[in-house]
Design a protein that fits this description.
The protein is an all-alpha fold. The protein has helices spanning about 5-10, 15-50, 55-80, 85-100, 110-135, 140-150, 150-195, 200-205, 210-215, 245-275, 280-310, 310-335, 345-375, 380-410, 415-435; strands at about 1-5, 225. The protein has a two-stranded parallel ribbon. Helix 5 (about 110-135) runs antiparallel to helix 6. The relative contact order is 0.14.
Length: about 450
């Protein structure tokens, strides 16, 4: 009997190999996040040592974002050609070695170059790890698996934030880069020893015998595997990311991801500056941002469960509409705080900031689930990479424009929140542009 690999997984219990694949891919993205966010943590030390201003050093920090965007698309393309496993190993090697090399930087430009190179690895690792997890998990666990692993990079940021003070005290900022770069290089070994390309990918590339061998990792049953059926399938033609059949998907994903990350990085990058300008103490403002980071992790995992049960369109449209209302309330609350904020005013702002963090992260996680479902195996890594690339545009845009919008308001946060509200509306619109949505469980 002819059967797809997804159908095989759907009737089997979860195997140890699938759990190992998920765990290693999560470890890769945690390592990715540690290396990616290390520079932002040690920046004050380097700025003081080099005797430069913060504005000049922004070039080095933003270089990783640029590299991340370029690496996600190009690395995703490589994953569709050479395989997820080898592409993931190459990406991990690139970002870990670039982190070690960054310790040799003596000025902003040399640091920016190494961070750009590291960013290529960061983005490629993200696209290929998410794709690999999606292809090795059955449909009942796929979406929650994808949305859970998407928090690996921010979790890595939390880990390095906790470790950095101790490491800097022991080795200085240069030694910290070397230590973490070498430590994270060991994930390359894990990838090559334990991970394998999925039968779904191998069949899409015409490597039938390798696909049957990979399938035996989960079952000894003799199977006649056939490629995954997809709505874009056309006999004799391989579908690429920019194929005309993907037009609505690409437009919708591009709008949604750009808008969602614009909101996310606007909140995460500028809330501390915004709130201290409104009379909050620095630690109070930083606490609000940390709460947003914490709620975002739980919301990303929850989004996978919601998408599985209710479908991606309903979840994304509902979350983005709720995000719009939350941003309106947050803007109103920030504008209404007194010169010396009261405890109740501070608490309301913290709660609304945390809720906004949960909602924009839920939207982003829903987009990851949507991309995993909507792009065919032949271009799935590149499709996810394309979405991440568009997300970097929103991240860079809001990071660069946030300060200008706050200055434009001349003490008012209205221009800043107006842009974020527009972003939330565009996410809702994009939910109806995409023509391939994860269906509700009742219709799957």
């Amino acid at each position: 009997m002819q059967v797809t690999f997804s159908e095989v997984m759907s009737r089997l219990p979860l195997r140890a190999f699938q759990v190992i694949t998920f765990v290693i891919c999560m470890v890769v993205l945690v390592a990715d996040g540690m290396d990616a966010q290390l520079l932002g943590i040690v920046a004050p030390i380097i700025i003081e040592e080099w005797g430069i201003d913060r504005g000049s050093f922004g070039l080095a920090i933003s270089a990783a974002l640029v590299g991340f965007g370029l690496g996600s698309w190009s690395g995703g393309w490589l994953g569709d050609r050479a395989g997820r496993r080898y592409s993931l190993a190459l990406a991990a090697a690139v970002f870990s070695l670039a982190t070690v090399a960054a310790s040799t930087a003596t000025d902003v430009w040399s640091m920016a170059i190494w961070r750009l190179v590291g960013g290529l690895g960061f983005g490629s690792a993200y696209a290929n790890a998410i794709t690999m997890v999606g292809e090795w998990l059955p449909d009942r666990l796929k979406f929650v698996g994808v949305t859970t692993i998407s928090v690996g990079t921010p979790a890595g940021g939390m880990v390095v934030a906790a470790l950095a003070p101790t490491l800097i005290g022991l080795y200085g900022w240069k030694g910290t880069f070397v230590f973490l770069g070498i430590a994270t290089f060991f994930v390359v070994v894990l990838i090559m020893v334990f991970l394998r390309d999925s039968p779904s990918f191998l069949l899409a590339r015409g490597r039938d015998e390798e696909a049957r061998k990979a399938a035996r990792i989960l079952t000894d049953e003799t199977l006649e595997l056939v490629p995954e059926r997809h709505s874009t399938d056309v006999a004799g033609r391989e579908i690429g990311v920019l194929d005309r059949s993907n037009l609505r998907l690409n437009v919708g994903i591009g709008i949604a991801f750009t808008s969602a990350t614009m909101v996310a990085y606007g909140i995460l990058s500028w809330t501390t500056t915004l709130l201290t300008g409104k009379g909050f103490a620095f630690d109070q403002a930083a606490y609000a941002v940390s709460i947003a980071g914490l709620t975002s992790i739980f919301a990303s995992i929850a989004a996978g469960l919601l998408v599985r049960h209710f479908g991606s369109r309903l979840v994304m449209a509902t979350m983005s509409a709720s995000l719009f209302l939350t941003l309106l309330m947050l803007a109103t609350s920030v504008e209404a705080v007194s010169d010396v904020p009261t405890d109740s005013e501070r608490m309301l702002v913290v709660v609304l900031t945390g809720l906004a963090g949960a909602l924009f992260s839920g939207c982003i996680a829903s987009i990851y689930a949507m991309m995993t479902y909507a792009y065919p195996p032949s271009c799935r890594s590149a499709g996810i990479g394309f979405g991440i690339f568009m997300g970097r545009i929103g991240a860079i845009g809001s990071t660069a424009m946030g300060g200008w919008l706050l200055d434009l308001g001349n003490g008012s946060s209205v221009p800043f929140f107006a842009l974020l509200c527009v972003g939330s509306v565009l996410i809702s619109c994009a939910a109806f542009v995409v023509d391939r949505q994860v269906p509700p469980a009742s219709r799957a």
